[in-house]
Specification:
The protein is mainly beta. The protein has one domain: Porin (Beta Barrel). The strands form 3 sheets. It has an 18-stranded antiparallel barrel. Strand 10 and strand 11 form a beta hairpin. The N and C termini lie far apart (62 Å). The N terminus is likely disordered. Keywords: Signal, Transport. InterPro entries: OM_porin_bac (IPR005318), Porin_dom_sf (IPR023614). This is Putative outer membrane porin protein. GO terms for molecular function: porin activity.
Length: 447
């Protein structure tokens, strides 16, 4: 009996020993087949850094304020291929290290305000990290007729009435988005319920100017694109708060000449109209109209634009709002954009952007705005002149590196809320400013 048991156990042990390499071979074959799938073979992982310093010295409230922030951003951006050429997943990690800050640093949008101390204290500045993008994706069809669907945390760059703004890290949105392409036409839709701000790791809801929570933002656009003409209409709505309409065109009039137009309209809804007047930047509706022309030569370009804003506000200077809620960023491609400037009621703005290639690696240029409007029978002027330089080295060892520097003065008026500050003679008080920024980007592909 004992002999039979020993023989039986020996046979089982021998069978197990023989089967181990066979099982290992099968597992290895399965793993090889799995990782040979396009889900993995078509995936990419990019690493990038952004060192950003932004500075502003201004006196718009009647006293001198300095806003300065300096941070080091780090990004890991993973994009998968598609399983069965249908489904995949992308993810992005963002980290920001604090390098320096002044009081009022939060206006620069680089560092996180952790709120440990009251007011605009520089000691509130800190770094942060977040998984700013994490979404599933599905696709069908091809470039001629195709569709894409995304769900999760995702950046939305110039997507309908929403966009993504990047400092040391970008802002992103939670929700669903997708597009359908048919030859020269494209339709995109998005429904989002919350966001990560570009300078924060905290998930936040969309909100009104007086702090009421908004359930969602819905937006979409339809585009036609041919060899010489691109035209796009978009619509967006923050629930019961603001509606946004936009129409943008780009026309290649000549080989070297491109003409663009932008029309944006915003209408207040129930929650907008119920706010106190001190929270409203316009009464019922606000419109912005702009046209620009760009001439491009081999070593230089010049772009000029003119814009006009209609944003009536009772007992104050109305403004066109670029964003359709707090904690979101709005699509706005007019040249007349610089914070809140150049988008005031009745304001006409002239813009200039130039660039010249001193060498194949180094470009320098000017960006300038001049604007004027009337308020209570007094003419008010705003302007700025910025000099910039961009260096993109061509050496193989420095591939992926770029350096951008810009600085210049500005002139506007002193204000409190939506009204200008006047001197003893009744004249609107002037305000000067000086702004500067340095951005150093570096990017390379890990696989």
């Amino acid at each position: 009996m004992i002999k039979k048991l020993c023989t039986k156990h020996s046979l089982l042990l021998l069978t197990g020993v023989i089967s181990l390499p066979l099982a290992a071979q099968e597992n290895s074959l399965f793993a090889n087949q799995l990782f040979a799938n396009q889900l993995f073979t078509d995936s990419t992982l990019d690493f990038s850094t952004r060192n950003m310093w932004k500075y502003l010295n201004e006196e718009e409230t009647g006293k001198k304020n300095i806003h300065s922030a300096w941070g080091q951003g780090i990004t890991l951006d993973y994009k998968s291929g598609y399983l069965a050429d249908i489904i995949g997943m992308d993810a992005s990690y963002y980290g920001v290290i604090k390098l320096g800050a002044s009081d009022n640093f939060a206006s620069r949008g680089i560092l996180f305000n952790d709120g440990r101390y009251p007011g605009a204290n520089k000691d509130n500045a800190s770094g942060f990290n977040k998984v700013g993008q994490l979404y599933g994706k599905m696709k069908a069809g091809d470039d001629a007729l195709g569709a894409n669907l995304y769900g999760g945390w995702k950046t939305l760059n110039k997507f309908g009435a929403l966009t993504t703004s990047n400092r040391a890290a970008p802002n992103s949105y939670l929700g669903w988005s997708g597009d359908i392409n048919l030859d020269a036409y494209r339709l995109r839709l998005a429904y989002v319920t919350s966001s990560y701000n570009r300078d924060s790791p905290d998930k936040v809801s969309f909100a009104t100017n007086d702090g009421q929570s908004l359930t969602y933002i819905f937006t979409g656009d339809v585009r036609y694109k041919s060899e010489n003409l691109t035209a796009q209409y978009f619509y967006g709505e923050s629930k019961d708060y603001l509606q946004r309409h936009g129409l943008e065109t780009e026309w290649n009039a000549l080989k070297k000449l491109q003409i663009g137009t932008q029309i944006y309209g915003t209408e207040g809804q129930e929650k907008w109209k119920s706010m106190a007047a001190s929270k409203q930047s316009f009464d019922d509706s606000a419109w912005h109209y702009a046209v620009d022309a760009r001439w491009k030569e081999k070593d230089w370009f010049t772009k000029v634009g003119v814009a006009y804003t209609d944003a009536n506000k009772t007992n104050g200077i109305g403004q066109f709002p670029r964003h359709i809620s707090k904690n979101s960023r709005g699509t706005f491609n007019s040249m007349a954009t610089a914070g809140l400037d150049y988008m005031r009621d009745g304001e006409t703005t002239f813009s200039l952007a130039t660039g010249y290639n001193l060498t194949p690696e180094l470009t320098t240029g000017i960006y300038a705005n001049y604007a004027f409007f009337n308020f209570e029978n007094q003419s008010i002027h705003e302007s700025e002149v910025n000099l910039y330089a961009r260096w993109i080295p061509s050496q193989t060892q420095l591939k992926g590196l770029s350096v951008f520097v810009m600085a210049g003065p500005g002139w506007t008026y002193q204000q409190q809320g939506y009204r200008p500050i006047r001197g003893g003679d009744g004249e609107v008080q002037r305000a000067k400013s000086l702004a500067a920024e340095i951005v150093i980007d570096y990017k390379f592909s890990i696989f």
